[in-house]
Recover the amino acids of this structure.
């Protein structure tokens, strides 16, 4: 059996395991482990298994996940998020899908603090899912908005993916960050419009609230104050140089804890619940990523990504066609592997190719960021979707996928526009720097 | 079965409690570092400390998460099978997973031994790392135990005379 | 006849490294792979796995022993406990540049043959250039440095402490945003980061005072090595020293050299030097690090005195050759 055949069989095996209801993270670990045993050796596979579990559990990058989730949990159990959504409901509850749009906008705001896809999804899921459920929002829509909103964590700076791309392509990080602002804001708007459109077509998706008096609206704003204080603390501290984005989660948790304690809204039970929920969510998310990484290493040792990349680089077609093939490969890679793993493997081949073809390096980085980010919601390795599933276990997985797909249209529109108007990404860095 | 269940619940609840303490420690250590740094006294070893605490936080919560069925799975297809067949599928699955995580537990345990023997030290603080590796192995043991309990439960279900019992 | 067949059967070697292919150790890996293929007339094919796609920094050497990769390139500096004698090269011993440090490292390891590399065949060894203070505000004296928050790792931490600065530990990719927002005032690393991470936009001052290096070792499992045909072994052996020089020169001249030229051109980078008396004062502050290392390693029964003595001889010798 050639390594490529092994890669394809490994994927099929992964599908079968998942269909047999094996937890997704464990299925990826098992399929990756057996694949490595076949391609390299059993001894090597056992070693990779043990050290990768240890390695992911001790990864500094992943240590942000427990902290951001804890912030969300403290905010939830001190009622901060409840009052935030109450206010949102009073102001935009009559708008079709008002709360789902609130979730999208909050995700975008949170993305400005947090650079990780999974941390953004886990945090916003913790905050938004119970609130949208409380107001009777459709589960597919709620789950879909959280899962797609989480992808903004990578698109809107700061962003782990952009940092990796910048380092690998020897580009400056700041222009890349700035170049992603317009596409990020544009995606946020499109997501909101999609929610709006869905809810106009079918008002049951986001049942509109009753009319509220201006007085009620204004008094609800007092409830937003805490959320605003927390948000300003984190954003302000970040830009004042008190802490790094990685440390922002801990600062936010501490802030939410203080707010909860001073307002006497965080009970002993609430505190305990926040902690146990956090460790459970963290264990789930970190295992999902460990699985994606181990399975990704298997695909790497088959050298399938390298060969695909070499093949695309050798194509003798117009440069736009090569670029489309490259993007298609990134799309498929995002489906099958942890996005970062795939980028690390393929950028050394594709980036020089894009330069040889004369594409702008910043523009190319923005485009592949968008394409691989979609991978977080495309099966089988759809980390965001599985995180949402973990946070609302009673919602069937196909419901979540159904809820999220429509939003991929926004990504496609954004990509098409980036092709037609590269300035969408390039204008802001040129203007500001 | 009952005894195993109780031991499983007790061990994993205990581990989860330590995970909770570790989580709070992560927050305090990070906030402490910020404060010290603001006053001009950063501690260069904070990054190392945080990663070890993160490892304990997540590893010690693995079994607890499994008991609460918090590890995401897709129930799209299995629900179409009959209860008996489903129990057999579960039995095989839990047996596979218990074996997989036994391998993980044992090999992380061995890895700790290798680090101990080679005298491995952390880069910045120059302190031993292997005790943390033993702790992660213990966390994985908690998960293995939870999976063994799930396996035995599914055996009871698969082999019980009447459906739905056990 | 089976001998004749196996002789012509192509040999594939996998080579893993934890950092991206574009970094100087990554360039070294690619260059080595090309040279091996060329010099064995295509008999040996090397498949490279950069960026930690196969093995990471922490599990590289055991991964090689377990057969995950045939060759692994990592930094012994990341594990001072496992590579005690190599950690002597990471002391403030006044290497002027990467080439001198690389040749010294390789020679001294070949001479002392320390037990820490027992199960391995050393393919090559090299170092980065010594760390330099790169900061937002100029550093011309100990007073300027006092309390300055600088990113450092490994032995850079005690160096900065001894000089009165405040070392901050963080992964390199976090440095640009941390400099941008003011979490840190600069960094003490090799200076290609000025261009690679575009740090020169904010860090406009460099102090020409070389401190400590990070060492790298590419190793192969001994059993794997023994299984290779003699002519392949010969090619690998002759490349060992060539690669140390090649990497040192590439790093010093192209990598760091161009980064400095670019930073001066684009961002008006200023380079300061210490006066003779000041430099002597700084050296005196760092000397105890070497002494305490000698004591620590001597207690373990390692030839620490002889090691440092030889290290200084080699450094002086190569410093004449590679200015
Ligand atoms: Na972000
Ligand atoms: Na995917």
């Amino acid at each position: 059996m050639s390594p490529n055949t092994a890669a394809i069989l490994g994927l099929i095996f992964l599908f079968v395991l998942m269909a047999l209801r094996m937890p997704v993270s464990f299925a990826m670990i098992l399929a990756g482990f057996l694949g490595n045993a076949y391609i390299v050796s059993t001894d090597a596979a056992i070693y990779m298994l043990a050290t990768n579990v240890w390695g992911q559990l001790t990864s500094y990058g992943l240590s942000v996940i427990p902290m951001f989730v804890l912030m969300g949990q403290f905010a939830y159990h001190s009622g901060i998020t409840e009052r935030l959504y109450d206010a949102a409901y009073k102001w935009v509850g009559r708008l079709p899908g008002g709360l789902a749009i609130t979730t999208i906008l909050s995700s975008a705001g949170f993305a400005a603090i947090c650079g990780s896809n999974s941390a953004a999804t886990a945090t916003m899921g913790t905050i938004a899912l119970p609130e949208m459920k409380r107001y009777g929002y459709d589960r597919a829509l709620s789950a879909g908005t959280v899962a797609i909103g989480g992808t903004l964590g990578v698109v809107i700076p700061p962003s782990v993916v952009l940092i990796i791309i910048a380092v690998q392509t020897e580009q400056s990080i700041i222009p890349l960050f700035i170049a992603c602002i317009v596409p990020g804001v544009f995606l946020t708007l499109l997501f909101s419009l999609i929610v709006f459109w869905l809810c106009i077509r079918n008002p049951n998706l986001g049942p509109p609230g009753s009319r509220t008096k201006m007085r009620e609206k204004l008094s609800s704003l007092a409830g937003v104050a805490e959320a605003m204080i927390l948000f300003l603390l984190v954003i302000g501290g970040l830009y004042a140089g008190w802490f790094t984005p990685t440390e922002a989660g801990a600062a936010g948790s501490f802030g939410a804890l203080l707010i909860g304690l001073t307002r006497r809204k965080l009970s002993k039970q609430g505190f305990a619940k926040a902690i146990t929920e956090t460790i459970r969510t963290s264990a789930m998310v970190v295992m999902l990523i460990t699985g994606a990484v181990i399975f990704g290493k298997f695909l790497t040792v088959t050298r399938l990504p390298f060969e695909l990349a070499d093949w695309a680089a050798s194509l003798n077609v117009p440069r736009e066609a090569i670029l489309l093939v490259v993007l298609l490969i990134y799309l498929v890679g995002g489906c099958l592997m942890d996005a970062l793993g795939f980028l690390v493997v393929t950028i050394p081949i594709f980036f020089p190719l894009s330069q040889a073809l004369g594409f702008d390096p910043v523009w190319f980085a923005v485009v592949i960021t968008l394409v691989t980010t979609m991978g977080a919601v495309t099966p089988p390795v759809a980390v965001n979707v599985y995180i949402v599933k973990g946070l609302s276990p009673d919602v069937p997985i196909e419901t979540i996928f159904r809820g999220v797909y429509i939003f991929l249209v926004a990504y496609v529109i954004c990509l098409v526009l980036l092709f037609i108007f590269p300035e969408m990404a390039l204008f802001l860095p040129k203007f500001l720097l | 079965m009952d005894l195993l269940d109780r031991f499983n619940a007790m061990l994993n609840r205990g581990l989860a409690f330590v995970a909770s303490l570790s989580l709070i420690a992560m927050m305090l250590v990070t906030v402490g570092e910020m404060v010290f740094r603001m006053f001009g006294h950063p501690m260069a070893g904070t990054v190392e400390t945080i990663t070890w605490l993160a490892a304990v936080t997540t590893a010690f919560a693995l079994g607890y998460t499994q008991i609460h069925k918090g590890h995401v799975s897709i129930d799209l297809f299995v629900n179409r099978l009959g209860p008996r067949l489903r129990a057999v599928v579960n039995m095989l699955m839990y047996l596979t997973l218990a074996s997989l995580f036994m391998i993980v537990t044992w090999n992380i345990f061995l890895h700790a031994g290798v680090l101990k023997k080679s005298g491995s030290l952390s880069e910045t603080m120059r302190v031993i790392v292997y005790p943390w590796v033993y702790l992660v192995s213990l966390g994985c043991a908690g998960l293995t135990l939870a999976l063994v309990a799930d396996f035995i439960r599914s055996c009871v279900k698969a082999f019980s005379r009447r459906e739905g019992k056990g | 006849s089976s001998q004749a067949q196996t002789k012509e059967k192509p040999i594939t070697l996998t080579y893993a490294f934890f950092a991206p292919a574009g970094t100087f150790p990554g360039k070294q890996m690619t260059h080595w792979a090309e040279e091996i293929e060329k010099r064995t007339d295509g008999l040996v094919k090397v498949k490279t796995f950069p960026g930690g796609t196969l093995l990471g920094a922490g599990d590289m050497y055991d991964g090689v022993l377990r057969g995950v990769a045939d060759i692994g390139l990592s930094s012994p500096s990341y594990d001072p406990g496992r590579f005690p004698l190599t950690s002597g090269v990471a002391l403030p011993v006044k290497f002027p540049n990467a080439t001198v440090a690389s040749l010294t490292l390789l020679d001294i390891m070949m001479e002392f043959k320390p037990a820490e590399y027992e199960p391995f065949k050393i393919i090559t060894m090299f170092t980065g250039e010594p760390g330099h203070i790169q900061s937002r505000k100029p550093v011309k004296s100990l007073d300027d440095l006092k309390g300055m928050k600088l990113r450092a790792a490994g032995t850079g931490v005690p160096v900065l402490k001894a000089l009165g600065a405040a070392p901050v530990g963080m992964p390199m990719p976090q440095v640009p945003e941390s400099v941008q927002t003011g979490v840190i005032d600069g960094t003490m690393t090799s200076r290609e980061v000025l261009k690679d991470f575009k740090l020169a936009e904010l860090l406009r001052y460099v102090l020409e005072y070389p401190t400590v290096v990070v060492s790298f070792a590419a190793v192969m499992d001994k059993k794997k090595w023994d299984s290779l045909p003699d002519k392949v072994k010969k090619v690998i052996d002759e490349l060992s020293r060539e690669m140390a020089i090649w990497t040192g020169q590439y790093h010093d001249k192209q990598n760091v050299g161009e980064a400095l030229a670019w930073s001066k051109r684009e961002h008006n980078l200023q380079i300061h030097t210490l006066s003779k008396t000041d430099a002597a004062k700084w050296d005196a502050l760092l000397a105890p690090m070497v002494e305490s290392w000698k004591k620590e390693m001597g207690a373990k029964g390692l030839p620490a005195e002889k090691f440092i003595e030889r290290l200084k001889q080699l450094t002086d010798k190569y410093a004449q050759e590679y200015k």
